[in-house]
Amino acid sequence: MENLAGLMNACPDPTPGVSAHLFLTLVNTLTNAKCKINSPQNYPEDFSSKLNDQDEFDFVIIGGGSAGSVIANKLSENPKWKILVLEAGKIPSLDTELPSLLFSLQQTAEDWQYDTEPNPNACLGIKGNRCRWPRGKCLGGSSSINANLYVRANKKDFDLWAAAGNEGWDYESILKYLKEIEDLQAPDLINSENYGRGGYLPLNVYHSNEPIKKAIVEAAASLGYPMSSEEPNLGFFDALQTVEKGIRANAGKAFIGRVKDRENLVVALNSFVEKIVINEQKEVQGVVVLIDNKRITIKVRKEVIVSAGSLNSPQILMLSGVGPKEHLKKIGIDIVQDLPVGENLQDHAAHVGIYIALSDEAVLPKGNIIDDLYQYFMQGKGPVGEIGLTNFMGFINTRNDSIYPNIQILHVLFDKNDNYLLPTLQNVMGLKDEITSIERQVNQKSPTLKIVPILSNPKSRGRIQLRSKNPFDKPLIYANYFDNPEDIETLLGGIKFILKLLETAPVNKLNPQVIDLQIPGCETFEFKSDDFWRCAIKHVTTTLYHPVGSCKMGLLSDKGVVDNRLKVYGIKNLRVIDASIMPTVTTGNTNAPSLMIGQKGASMIVDDWSHGHSEL
C-alpha cells in the first residue's frame, strides 16, 4: 500500500478525476481477485487452540499432506467417527497457489529444507556436497509446493508390488482408487474413459506452443517415441496437472477444504507430533504433540495413521520406539518393535548438467509481466498459471525393446537473459558458483534449455536415521545415489539419447549447442566423452523430489515395515499410509500414486472398522 500511495502522490494533478477513479477501481478489482485465489474459505479452520490434554478422537492422522488429506476426507464420510488431522505447517500462502512460482517455494517456511548427507558418489557439484531435499511444510504437504504434475505411473510398477507379496496392489486392483479421486476436466481428453470424473481432484492439461517443443516432438517420433495425448508406456506427452482455472489444487484444499464443514473433521495447524504413545501390550494409545509451546497428549479410540511423508514418517516411528533395534539403542530410545524403519529409501535422481544454448527462433516472444498478471488475476489464464515446458515429458527405454521405461525426460526452458526462473532454480538446487556463473553468462546471449534425464527405477537404496532423540533435530538422510554403478550407466544411456535427439534435423535447425559447464572435478575428461558424463552425473545430479520406500510395504520376511493393509507389524492400531510404504518407486512423478495410496488405505480402514475390526 505504501508503493500505491507513492504512485498516487507522484501524480502532478492533485484533483481526483475519472482516471484516478478508474485506476483505483482496477487496483481494487485485482486485489479482490488475488484474495479470492487465496481465500481462507478454501481451507478448514485451525482447531489447534481448542485442543486440550487428553482429548480423544477415533482416528488421529499425523500429517495433512497428499495422502493424509485424502484419508481425512474418506474417513470423515462416516459422521459417527471423530477425525483429527495434526499438521506441522500452516495454511499455504498465496505464492503456492500460482503454478509458475513453484521453484521459489523451496527454501521457505513452507519447506522442511532437508539436506542429504555427503556422499563420494553424488551431489559433488552442490554446495556442501549435500543435495537439497525440499518437502512441503503446510497443509497439502508437498502437493502445495510441487510442479502439480499428475503422472499415474506404469502398470508394471504396481504389478511388481503385488508380485512381491502385496496382494491387492496390482494395477487392476488400484485403478479404481485412482479414478475415485480424479475429476478429469481437460477439454481435449473429455472423451477419455481412462480417467475418473466427479472426484475431488481437478485434472487439467497445458500445451506449450514453443518452437523447441515442436522440434523435440518431431525428433522423438523419428527415434521411435511418438507424442501421445495421454500418459503412455513409452513416448512423449503433456502431463496432466492438478490445476483448476490457473490455480494450484493442492491436496489440502481439494480433499479437506471442500469438506471443511463436516463437524466430525478438525485440523490442527502448527502442531508438531513428537511421538506415538504405545503401551506394554504394543497397543497405540495416542500421540504427544507440541502446540504453541504446550505439550499435550491426544488419545485415540481406534487408530493412529502416520502420513507424514517418506522422511518424517520413519522419524516419528523411530522416536516412538519402532525401528531398527541397534540404531535406536545407539540413540538411547527404548525399543518397542524391531523393524527396518528408514531402510529401502529410494528417489528419482535427475541429471541437470545438459545445458543447451538455442537460437532466438526456438522460443516464442514473451509479453509484459504487468499484462501477464492482469490476464492471470482477471481471467485465470496466461504464463503466471502455467509452468512452461515442465509438464512436457517423455518415457524411454535405453537398454531393450521393453515397454517398461528406465528413463524419464523433463525440459526446463529459460528465455534469453532470464532474471527469475534460472537464478531461482540455481539457488534452490544449490549448484556451486563456478557452474551457475557459466549458465548465466550463456543465458545473457541466448535462450537456454535444460533437458533432464531421470533415473526411473534406481537400483541404489538409501536410508533415514535419527540424528538424536530430540524430535526437532532433522533426520539423517543417506540418499546413497549411485551406490549401485548400474544406475550411472542407465543415466548415461539417457544422456546419449538426448545428445542423439539434438542431432536430428528438426532440433538441429534451431542451432542447439551443448554447453561445457566446466564442472569442477571433471576438467580432465574430454567434453562429451562417456567418462566426462559419468563424472558429471556424480557432480550435477540431484533429487526430482520423489523420496519413497522408507516404511516399506512387504512381507515381514522381506524386510517389510507394514503389511498389505498398511498395518505396522507387531503394533496394534497403527498404520502408515503415504509414499513411504512404496516397495519400489513408481515410474514418473509420485504425487498421483501417493494420493491413490491415501484413498486405498482409507478404504481399507473403513472396511476393517465397518465389518468387524481385524486384529494384527
Keywords:
Glucose Oxidase, domain 3; 28 strands; 19% strand; disordered N terminus; alpha/beta; globular; 30% helix; FAD/NAD(P)-binding domain; seven-stranded mixed beta sheet; 616 residues
Helix content: 25-40%
Give me the CATH fold name of the largest domain.
Glucose Oxidase, domain 3
Structural class: alpha/beta
Outline the low-pLDDT stretches: 1-15
Q: Classify the beta-strand content into a percent band.
A: 15-25%
Number of helices: 17
Shape: globular
Corresponding CATH superfamily of the largest domain: Glucose Oxidase, domain 3
The largest pleated sheet is described as: 7 strands, mixed
Could you tell me the radius of gyration in angstroms?
A: 25 Å
Description:
The chain is an alpha/beta fold and 616 residues long. The longest helix has 20 residues, at 18-37. The protein is globular. β1 (56-62), α3 (66-75) and β2 (83-86) form a beta-alpha-beta unit. It is built from 17 helices and 28 strands. It folds into 2 domains: 42-92 and 142-174 and 252-343 and 547-616, 3-Layer(bba) Sandwich (FAD/NAD(P)-binding domain); 102-137 and 208-238 and 349-543, Glucose Oxidase, domain 3 (2-Layer Sandwich). Helices cover 30% and strands 19% of the residues. The strands form 8 sheets. Strands 1, 2, 13, 14, 15, 16 and 28 form a 7-stranded mixed beta sheet that branches. Strands 8-9-21-22-23-20-26 form a 7-stranded mixed beta sheet. The chain has a 4-stranded mixed beta sheet with strand order 5-10-7-6.
Quick recap:
With 616 residues, this protein is α/β, with parallel strands linked by helices. The protein contains 17 helices and 28 strands.
